[in-house]
Amino acid sequence: xxxxxxxxxxxxxxxxxxxxxxxxxxxxxxxxxxxxxxxxxxxxxxxxxxxxxxxxxxxxxxxxxxxxxxxxxxxxxxxxxxxxxxxxxxxxxxxxxxxxxxxxxxxxxxxxxxxxxxxxxxxxxxxxxxxxxxxxxxxxxxxxxxxxxxxxxxxxxxxxxxxxxxxxxxxxxxxxxxxxxxxxxxxxxxxxxxxxxxxxxxxxxxxxxxxxxxxxxxxxxxxxxxxxxxxxxxxxxxxxxxxxxxxxxxxxxxxxxxxxx
Length: 261
Hints:
261 residues; mainly beta; Porin; twelve-stranded antiparallel β-barrel; 64% strand
């Protein structure tokens, strides 16, 4: 046997011994495939934006109309918080013709298949100096359902009992039970355009002729990733307003919006 043949035989024997030894090792002693460490779960963040509308005229007319709108929401796996604030102030020839402050907070807890069902608690507060609503507070727990829920469109319905306490003009505070029926719709037409709409109806339980109706319709177009232009139509109807006041208040607001979170 020459040296090359002997060397080849020894290499073959050595490889066979190595393979046999490896197979004989306990499972935990054999090399295990490396796994990539799981990335830490990203904590949910607030999604918030603000919109500002301002109209000023001087000359034959002397007017000022200012509107500030702030919206924020935060979502967890099963929970959601929604907050909002609206403020409007206006003058015509030095006479105040708009003075409204409104805020709301709502907590949702989802359940059921695909998390379409949710329970909610909503709190709203309003002051409208021109409509002589010195103060109105409404509290409503209820049940909601996401009728349509995808990346582009969202349609949600809500229903439940409610409680309203209000002071109109010089009258004393009064309170009554209501039913709350509401829906809101949002459509992201494309990367730039968005349309939204909402309606809320609150009739008094023992007197349906006394009710409140709040509605909003808006459209926005993005001009940068942070800024957008928007037009919003808001309507508030009080079937039994304060003495000497009209039932309907309609606002058309054009402004600029900013997404800051």
